């Protein structure tokens, strides 16, 4: 029997998704919990590997097993053995033809950013941070230059194992949400800067290693007025990692999951989607 699971996790305590021998990973924790639940070894394949510190709103995995359990039992039973920062959100039996990675038509990521003169505290490891005001129009203009099929070598980490740097971005949407006004801090000069949250939504057929974090680095240089929006086209055309900005922090990056065809009957979101700013 082939099962598919939707997994949400906070990536701060893990060295990424993929199993590693000497450091904790999300895959290792999940496979250990699944194996304990059914009392037999379980090996999983995922829709998209995430880096160290990156979170998952709906990672999708599949695995084969002889264990027969109701879908709800796969959720509750596995969660009983998982650490608190990882949880199975849903489970479905799927045909043998289903493959979590190969059947994914698109993949989605969200980057959440705090713009504030004061670094995050409660949101530590959950959001990225900038202390300068950002220009939304300039960032969106630059982001639009990346839409379509391109060679994204300029945004590719040196350790990337992808067979080709050519990927297709379908959309990058940038939204701004003001933070709650602090009425009692009107005379505190540290709070004269208007704090807000930014949400960057990416959707593409696939992504290179560090691709989104490298794009974020460029977008933020443009948003802070350090570079013009047209600079993004120059970076893209250079096809060289040296042309782009430094890799931005992983803290605010969330894998919001793959998009599958309706024939598989799988959910396309979890409650964790509604938790983000």
From TrEMBL:
Family: Belongs to the tRNA pseudouridine synthase TruA family.
Role this protein plays: Formation of pseudouridine at positions 38, 39 and 40 in the anticodon stem and loop of transfer RNAs.
tRNA processing as UniProt keyword: yes
The entry's keywords: Isomerase, tRNA processing
EC number per UniProt: 5.4.99.12
Assembly notes: Homodimer.
Protein name as it appears in the record: tRNA pseudouridine synthase A
Pfam families referenced in this protein's UniProt entry, alphabetically: PseudoU_synth_1 (PF01416)
The keyword Transmembrane helix is assigned to this record: no
Main enzyme class: isomerase
Record-linked Gene3D superfamilies: Pseudouridine synthase I, catalytic domain, C-terminal subdomain, Pseudouridine synthase I, catalytic domain, N-terminal subdomain
Gene name, Swiss-Prot/TrEMBL: truA
Catalytic residues identified in the record: 51
Domain of life of the native organism: Bacteria
Domain Pseudouridine synthase I TruA alpha/beta: 8-100, 142-256
Reactions catalysed according to its record: uridine(38/39/40) in tRNA = pseudouridine(38/39/40) in tRNA
GO molecular function annotations of the record: tRNA pseudouridine(38-40) synthase activity
Gene source species: Curvibacter cyanobacteriorum
InterPro entries reported in the protein's UniProt record: PsdUridine_synth_cat_dom_sf (IPR020103), PsdUridine_synth_TruA (IPR001406), PsdUridine_synth_TruA_a/b_dom (IPR020097), PsdUridine_synth_TruA_C (IPR020095), TruA/RsuA/RluB/E/F_N (IPR020094)
Binding residues for substrate: 109
């Amino acid at each position: 029997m082939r099962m598919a699971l939707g997994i949400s996790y906070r990536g701060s305590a893990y060295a990424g998704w993929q199993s590693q021998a000497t450091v904790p990973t999300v895959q290792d924790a999940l496979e250990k919990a699944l194996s304990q639940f059914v009392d037999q070894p379980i090996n999983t394949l995922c829709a998209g590997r995430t880096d160290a510190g990156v979170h998952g709103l709906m990672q999708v995995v599949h695995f084969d097993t002889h264990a027969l359990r109701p879908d709800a039992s796969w959720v509750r039973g596995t969660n009983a053995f998982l650490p608190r920062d990882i949880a199975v959100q849903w489970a479905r039996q799927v045909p043998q033809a289903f493959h979590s990675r190969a059947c994914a038509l698109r993949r989605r990521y969200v980057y959440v950013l705090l713009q504030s003169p004061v670094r995050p505290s409660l949101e530590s490891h959950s959001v990225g941070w900038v202390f300068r005001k950002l220009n939304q129009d300039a960032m969106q203009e630059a982001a639009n230059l990346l839409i379509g099929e391109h060679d994204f070598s300029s945004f590719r980490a040196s350790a990337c194992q992808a067979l080709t740097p050519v990927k297709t971005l379908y959309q990058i949407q940038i939204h701004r949400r003001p933070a709650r006004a602090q009425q009692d801090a009107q005379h505190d000069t540290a709070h004269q800067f208007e704090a807000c949250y930014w949400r960057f939504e990416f959707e593409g057929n696939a992504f290179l290693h560090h691709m989104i974090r490298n794009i974020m680095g460029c977008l933020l240089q443009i948003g802070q007025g350090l570079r013009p929006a047209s600079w993004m086209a120059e970076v893209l055309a250079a096809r060289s990692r040296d042309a782009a900005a430094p890799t931005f922090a992983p803290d605010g990056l969330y894998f919001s999951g793959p998009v599958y065809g309706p024939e598989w009957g799988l959910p396309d979101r979890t409650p964790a989607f509604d938790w983000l700013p």
